[in-house]
Amino acid sequence: MNEFWDTAPGCFHPASAPDYLPLPQMRELQLRRLQAVVRRAYDKVQLFRSRLEERGLRPECVRSLDDIVHLPFTVKTDLRDTYPFGLFASPMQEIVRLHASSGTTGKPIVVAYTKDDVEVWTSVMGRTLAACGLHKGDVIQNAYGYGLFTGGLGAHYGAEGLGATVIPISGGNTDRQIMVMRDFKVTAICCTPSYFIHLLDRASDLGVDIRDLSLKIGVFGAEPWTESMRRHIQAVSGIKAYDIYGLSEIIGPGVASECCCQNGLHVFEDHFFPEIVDPATGEPAPEGAEGELVLTALTKYAMPMIRYRTRDITALETEACGCGRTVRRIRRIGRRSDDMFIIRGINVFPSQIETALLTIEGTLPHYQIILTRHKGLDELEVQVEVTPEVFSDKVGSLEDLNARLMRALEQTLGLRAMVRLVGPRSIPRSEGKARRVIDRRNMQD
Hints:
single chain, 445 residues, Rossmann fold, GMP Synthetase, Chain A, domain 3, nine-stranded mixed beta sheet, four-stranded antiparallel beta sheet, disordered N terminus
């Protein structure tokens, strides 16, 4: 495993040095690595070679970074269609790790790692945690799930490489999570933002004030979350809440991370080349425009992933960041194109609903979106928890809050939604990724 130098908290961490590489050197490195990974994929992966030849291209055609737009896209169905090992560029004797998605919607997504790939993963996760302000001496409670999911082991290896103390607690058993957080003097936690909110609720039930503990930093990822939810987390817990980004198809967590400025996620560009394309056409988006994030893993050996369409909607930030990093940033990813649902001809994203709800005082950050169909028409109902003080007033406060929420949703979405207010702890909690949308339309007339 890569080892990172020791450094005092609050100082520049040497693990972050590649983030400050001068741009000419970065572009030269990216080009060399792009050419190498295209050559490897062409030589070792039948699907990529066939697609390149269909376009009349060979690896030698990549002479500059601009030539990347001529290469074919890779999409999630490619991994399912070649299940389990059809995209591997390394023999099984060189594969030291396999991860996979849950496969709840069909065949699972299988991803592979060589020893070198695991070392790269360790390095970029170390840089992720360093960007969030963590150092040797921090005690990190890793509540991401271990197993086939990439989150747990990705964060674990990165934290160990950084020299921090890791508590591999995984997800679930919330009361024990709170006990460990208190008794082990945990300074940072890694988990989904929705699970951390559940931890906050349960800590309150147990009479534990998170503000009285040693916890200072939350490293949250694995699901989209809004700026409104960040404000809620920081206000209730007193910690700094950082967003991180990754996906199994590329490497797992460790593709991008916020820094102390909390103003977009820095992409570790020496390993992952970002593009923004129009999600409808696949054509490059104008500079600074919002679109779909496309990533090329420049150093993935076991399973080269070239121009992978993530379905995540974001934009590449063009202005410099206050932290001084030269690697580019992407805006926080609050929505995915495949999270979108259509109600009466209007495109709706769960993040829009969350933002509208959390701007109204009296609500809690727990909600559920129910989609139904009545007499051929789609209906949208939003169930949202309210504070105990509001819920105890069964007449005036609830009626007023319901009306304000309906107005806020109509202004945000451009359509009328039903709102049902429920008491605290009414909506099921998740110990991993939150399930926000329940679509019952196919079950109804």
